[in-house]
Amino acid sequence: QKEVEQNSGPLSVPEGAIASLNCTYSDRGSQSFFWYRQYSGKSPELIMSIYSNGDKEDGRFTAQLNKASQYVSLLIRDSQPSDSATYLCATNSGNTPLVFGKGTRLSVIA
Amino acid sequence: DAGVIQSPRHEVTEMGQEVTLRCKPISGHNSLFWYRQTMMRGLELLIYFNNNVPIDDSGMPEDRFSAKMPNASFSTLKIQPSEPRDSAVYFCASSRSTSGKNNEQFFGPGTRLTVL
């Protein structure tokens, strides 16, 4: 059973701080890794994808992948109240569909 | 470009009634996914299609659920008969493929189903 684990939170950070969201996965064959943001009452929105070990930066977001340790993280710099949402981690391997974690709820306090 | 389109956005029905949810994937996407999301169970994959062919329906909870994809631009998820425990948000998503770097999934706005 392929699993993706996330701390459900809530993770509370003050405005302007760095929010760090973590995800571990069980399938060593996982090749693609994604972070989705889901606002309450809305659908998941893709914000980052990463395929290789290391860091990938996009604006205030940085995804970090460590395949040896089977974890992927998302850093949000200069957190804003508008970043308050649930963040879903997802992975897949080969020709299989994505496996999603249950998400971490982030609350940015103004 | 238009994203994934779902209809209806909200559906309220009575137990025992048939419910049909509709989805139009992003043009050019060959893979289509149906998900159900609840607070308790999170996002669950129900079924997915590649090139209009159902590949894996192991997530479909019961025989009351069925899905079709008659062409590349349309899919339906049907529940017959519906039960209160089917109440959830149902998402449709599409991607160019399920492998390589074309497997990014894009979600529709969802259908919020309430079965009374």
Characterization of this structure:
The complex is a heterodimer of chains A (110) and B (116). Chain A is mostly beta strands and 110 residues long. Chain A has strands at 4-5, 11-14, 19-25, 32-38, 45-50, 54-58, 61-66, 71-76, 85-92, 99-100, 104-109. In chain A, strands 2, 4, 5, 9, 10 and 11 form a 6-stranded mixed beta sheet that branches. A 5-stranded antiparallel beta sheet of chain A has the order 1-3-8-7-6, with no helix packed on it. The model of chain A has no long low-confidence stretch (mean pLDDT 94). Chain B has 116 residues and is mostly beta strands. Chain B has no helices and 11 strands. In chain B, the strands form 2 sheets. In chain B, strands 2, 4, 5, 6, 9, 10 and 11 form a 7-stranded mixed beta sheet that branches. In chain B, strand 4 and strand 5 form a beta hairpin. Chain B is globular, with a radius of gyration of 13 Å. Chain B starts with a strand and ends with a strand. The A-B interface holds A 32, 34, 36, 42-46, 49, 51, 88, 90, 92, 94-98, 100-103 and B 31, 33, 42-43, 45, 48, 56, 91, 98-99, 101, 103-110.
| Overall average residue pLDDT of chain B | 94
Distance, first to last CA of chain A: 40 Å
- Cα-atom radius of gyration of chain B: 13 Å
Global shape of chain B: globular
Strand runs of chain A, count: 11
The helix-strand sequence of chain B is EEEEEEEEEEE
> How many DSSP H or I helices of chain A?
0
If you compute it from the alpha carbons, what radius of gyration of chain A comes out, rounded to the nearest whole angstrom?
13 Å
Strand content of chain B: over 45%
Strand content of chain A: over 45%
Q: Low-confidence parts of chain A lasting 5 or more residues at pLDDT below 50?
A: none
Mean pLDDT of chain A: 94
Unreliable stretches of chain B = none
